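task queued by scheduler; priority normal; single chain, no ligands, no partner chains; default sampling; output format set to structure tokens
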Amino acid sequence: MSNKTPEDILDLARQRIELRKQQEHALCEQWQQERAARERPWRYIFLYILGILLLVLFLTPGASLEWKLYAIVHGLVAQQHNVFLDGMQLPICARNIGIYSGFLITLVYLWVSGRRCAGGLPAKPLMALLGAFVLVMAVDGFNSLLGTIGQPQLYPSRNDLRTVTGAGMGMTIAAAFLFVFNRSLRQNVDKQQSVIGWRDWGIVLAFNGLMTLAFYSGLGFLYWPLAFLSFFGLVGELFVINVLIVSLLMGYGGSITFVRDLARPATFALLTNLLIIGALALLRFASEGLIALAALPSSLL
């Protein structure tokens, strides 16, 4: 017969549980190291493709950089209600400037401010406020639509209002995306930390306010920084959404610790971005060409 006391049996059980945890942790670390080794070449592939695309954007002769920015995103946004700085048109329209610049500013701020692993919902009053931003933009968009179709408006439409309401929408999208991204892909998600707090909201709101003032300042030297902010905000939002989708399809759900662990799906997402943007731009330019051709008098054909 065994002379072990209940305390001895409990100690043995605890030791076995602890040993099992150590083994599982060791296996997990080994698996992460192996995957990091597999991902490393993909980081260079990603940077190589990205570098080529940037070189093509900036160095391809035959068209101005202003027109290239406009043409690349031509199939993604309406490009109506345009904003000009020093006589130069920004690549996307007033509302989209707010949405995508606001998205990029908010996401970058939340990332660098220590919420890159956050997976908790904001406080309910803050969630309601972010939801109100969506509602406000919907109302302003509907009011703008009424003017476009020649119907009486609730109030006169203005580009600065389009940008302000768009920026509120961009802030909300950024917070929602970070929540979904971390909950879907991160192994080390912190479900107790909210993706955005009141202090973050105040700082991001101030940044977006300064951004809006810059867009309507009329200062020509701000054209290129603001053009790149809005352009890469739009292209970047599409890219990160594609990264999330491709990563989930490739089985990365709940398994990453660092963003660099997504080098392989990010490479395929970058190519997907290129395909979507290129195809939509070509389709829109082609349709506009056909419409313009159809509008010509038959005597000119």
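post-processing summary
- The chain has one domain: 42-281.
- Residues 6-59 form the longest helix (54 residues).
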